[in-house]
Write a structure and sequence with these properties.
Tetracycline Repressor, domain 2, 76% helix, DNA-binding, mainly alpha, 10 helices, homotetramer
Amino acid sequence: MTHSKSVRRSPGKRERLAAAAAQVLHEQGVEQTTLADIARAADVPVGNVYYYFKTKNELVEAAIDAHAQNLRAVIGALDALPTPQDRLKALLNGWIEQRELTAQYGCPTGTLASELDKRADGLDQAIAKVIQVLIDWAEQQFQAMGRDDSRELAIALIAAYQGVSLLTNTFRAPDLMTAEGRRLERWIDSLT
Amino acid sequence: MTHSKSVRRSPGKRERLAAAAAQVLHEQGVEQTTLADIARAADVPVGNVYYYFKTKNELVEAAIDAHAQNLRAVIGALDALPTPQDRLKALLNGWIEQRELTAQYGCPTGTLASELDKRADGLDQAIAKVIQVLIDWAEQQFQAMGRDDSRELAIALIAAYQGVSLLTNTFRAPDLMTAEGRRLERWIDSLT
Amino acid sequence: MTHSKSVRRSPGKRERLAAAAAQVLHEQGVEQTTLADIARAADVPVGNVYYYFKTKNELVEAAIDAHAQNLRAVIGALDALPTPQDRLKALLNGWIEQRELTAQYGCPTGTLASELDKRADGLDQAIAKVIQVLIDWAEQQFQAMGRDDSRELAIALIAAYQGVSLLTNTFRAPDLMTAEGRRLERWIDSLT
Amino acid sequence: MTHSKSVRRSPGKRERLAAAAAQVLHEQGVEQTTLADIARAADVPVGNVYYYFKTKNELVEAAIDAHAQNLRAVIGALDALPTPQDRLKALLNGWIEQRELTAQYGCPTGTLASELDKRADGLDQAIAKVIQVLIDWAEQQFQAMGRDDSRELAIALIAAYQGVSLLTNTFRAPDLMTAEGRRLERWIDSLT
DNA sequence: TATGAATGAGGGTTCATTCAT
DNA sequence: TATGAATGAACCCTCATTCAT
C-alpha cells in the first residue's frame, strides 16, 4: 500500500505540462515547438517548467508517456468487447472518428515517430515501444481469430493505418481515412 | 568531340546542391538540417548557395523537385513492362531493394510530407503533388487490371507502403519491408 | 519613504536600452548602428536585448519615444515662461546651447526623420508625430502673439532650425547655429 | 562620322551608372541601396560595375559629382537673369516645381549630406562642397543687392530650403514647400 | 572590356537552458 | 517551489568585393 504520496508540488502541474506537450507537439511538430509554446499552453511560467522537466527532451518523453497512457486506456476499453473481430473493428472506428484531427496533424504517434527518428536522442526508442504495444495487441486479436500469420497481419493493419494517416494528412482529406477504414473492416471479415 | 557549349557557370552546381539537399534533408530531416550542412555535402561555400537558391525553402523545393524527377524516372522504367501486375510488382521490388535506406531514414517522400505539413509554407502542396503522381499511376495499373475500385486500391497500396516504411524506420527493421512487400505481391495476384 | 515595490526586473534596463538606442542611433545613424552597438552602450548582453525589444525596429521606436518624452519635458519647461516671445526665444537658446552636439551629429529628430523616411516600416510616422508636436507648440506661441499666420510662421521657424542644423552638421560649424539663432531672435521681435 | 575621342569603353556607361546612382541613392538612401540596385537601374551587369568604380564609395562620389554638375547647370541658367532678385526667385520657383519629388524623397543633396555625415569616409566633405557652392552663389546675389549681411542671408535662405525640404518629406506634404517658397519670395522683396 | 559566379564577413533573430531571488 | 530575467551559441540571410574567363 502506497502512503499518501507527499504532495508539495502543485498537484497535476506536471501532468498539465505533459498533456500540453503532447498536444502542442502533435500540432506543431517537435522542432517547431518552443518550450515557451508548451509553457503557455499549460499556463505555466517558462522558468518553472524546468522544475519539472530538466530538458526539452524530457518534456517530449513525457508527451510520449501521455500517448502511451492514452493507448493503454483505448486498448483497455476495446478488451471489454466480446470477439477479436469486434475489438479490431472498434479500433478502426476510433481511427475513423479521429479523421478530422488526423487530416490536420496526422497520427500523433506516427508523426512523432517520424520526427524523433531524425534525432540523436534515445527518444525514438520510447515512441517505438508505444507503437509496439499496439502491434502486439493487434497480433493477439488475430491470434485469437485462429490465424497463424497473426504477426504479419498485425503489421499490415498498423501499417495500413499509419500510411493512410499520412495520406489523409498530406491531402487534408479525412474521407481517405473513412474509405480505408471500411476497406480494412471488410478485410478483417474476410480473414475468419 | 563534344560541342563546345562554353560553360561559364560551374556545370551542374545547382543540380549538385539540389541533390545534396535531397539526400541530407532525407537523412537529417528538414529542421535539423543546416544550410551549412547542405553546402558542405555539395562542397559549395555557404555564401555561394544563395546565388542559386534565395532561401532555405527554395532548397527544400529543389529537393522535392529532385524526388519528383526521380519518381518520374522510376515510373518511366516500370511502364516498359508488359502487364500492370508486372509493373506493380516491380514497384514493390524497388521498395524492397531500398529497405536498408528506408530502415535508416524512412521513405524520402513520406518523411518529407510529414515534416512539411507542420510548416506554414506552401511546400506541403509540392510534396503532396509528388505523392499524388504515384497514386495516380497505381490507379492506372489497377484500372488496366479491370478493377473498378482502382482508386481505392491505389490508395491502399501507397498507404501500405508509407505505413510499413514508417514501421521499418521506427523499428530499424528492413525485414518488415520485405515481408509486407511479399504480402502485397500476393494481394495483387489475388485481385485479378 | 519609498514604498517597497519589489524589483525583480533589473530596474530601468529597458529604459537604459532605450536611452542608449536614442544616443547611439543619433551618433551613428540607424543603418550603421548594430544591435551589438546598442547593447554594448547599455552594457547589456546582446541576447538579452531581445527580452525587452523583439526587433531592432522596436528599439528604434523606443528611441523615438525617448525623443518625444524629452521634447515634452522641454516644452513643459518653456511653458513656465511668461510671454510667447520669451518661450520662443528660450527655445532658440536651447538650440544654440546644443550647437556642438548638432555640429557633430545633427538634430536628433531631424536626422532620424530623414533616415526613417527611406524605410518601409511605419517608423517614419512615429518621428513625424514628434516633429508635429513641436510645430504645434510653436504655432500656439505665434497665435498667442496675435498672429493669424501662426501656422506658416511655425513651419518657417522649425524649418529654419532643421535647415541650419543640417548645415551646422554638414560644415561642422557650430557658429552657424549661433548666428542663425540670433537672426531668428530678431525676427521674432520684429513680428510683434 | 566622328572618330576622335578613342571610344573603347562603351560610351556613356560610366555616366549612366553615375546617373543611376544619383537617382537610386536619392530614392532609397545610401545604406539601403545595393550595388545590384544601381547596376540594375543602369542596366549594367553587376560584375561590370567594378570596371568603372572600384568601390561603392566611388559610386556615391560619382553621384555627388552628378549632383554638383546639375547644380552648376542650374546656377548657370539663373545667372542669365537680369537682377539678383530675379535670380533668387527663380531658384525658389525651381524648388517649388520639384516639390513632389521632395515630398517623396527629400532634397537630393540634403538627404545625402545627412546620410554621409554618419560615415567614416571623406564623402561628407564632397557633398559639403556642393552645398557650399549654392551658399556662395546665394551670397553673391545678396551682395549684389547691396546687403552687407549677405553671408548670413545666404545661410538663412539655404537653411530655410533644407529645413522645409525635410518637413515636406517627413509629412509628405508638397504644399509646405509651396507656402514656404512664397514666404521666402516676400522676404526677398522685403530686403531691398 | 565584360560578365556570371564565388567568397566570407557580419547582421538580426531565436531559443534552450541557467540564474538570482 | 516559483519566476522573470539572463545568456550565448547557432542559424538564416545579405552584400560588397573579387575571381576566372
